Amino acid sequence: MINYLKSESYRLLRKKGPHLTGVICLFLIAAAAAVLYFSGQSDPNFRYATSKFFYSNVVGSGLMIIIVGLIYNSFLTGKDLTLMKQSISFGISRNTIFWSKLILTLSYFLLICVVGIIFMAVLGENIFAGDNQAIRNFLLACVNMAPIVLSGFFLTHTLKMLRVGDVYIIIVVFFIFGLSGNMLRVFRPISGLNELYKYAPHSLLKDNLMSFLDDAVQFDYKYWVVGIGISVISLLIGAKKFATKNID
Fold it and tell me: Would the pTM count as exceeding 0.70?
């Protein structure tokens, strides 16, 4: 597995996509900061040139971050069918292929996420009006978001490895992380289903944003229960299905 990891890591490093995607993400963060800052400078009544509002753009973008994760997933799980067939023919197990690609793409995704959070914190605390509570709440909200976002990453990895088309993956991701709460809201009056609504990934992401805006964000185990549950189920099913999938 180590040799395969090194080989895939070398291929990933030579691709322009991961580096370009990272640069674009950081540029968008800087652009958002610049727009808010100069808007505040040009208009004294502009209320949104604050670190709290700046941070809320990320706290409220859980679905978009998962889409970025899908992009990172595609760098080793996209047009690699021929390479995977060659690897298997050389005796590399499908289990090794599945987990190696996950480890590498996840590492790069986590790196850009951590760099992005640090970059936002530096910008937010240096160019915007704010207080210590804003950065504390932002970091706490990120901790709550992390397992939900990672579960989306693991789900997209499984679907990519099973050769599901990108359009269908986006539909599945949008339904689970951008629509599930609204769908289950209809059934809230039914006894027992109200709790299910509260645990929907979409509901959790929305509640996290509202708590952040209300300065009431706290660590909540529900995010980790749901995130870990989706992650484990996705990866176990994915690894089992990929082990027997025909990739000819």
Answer: yes
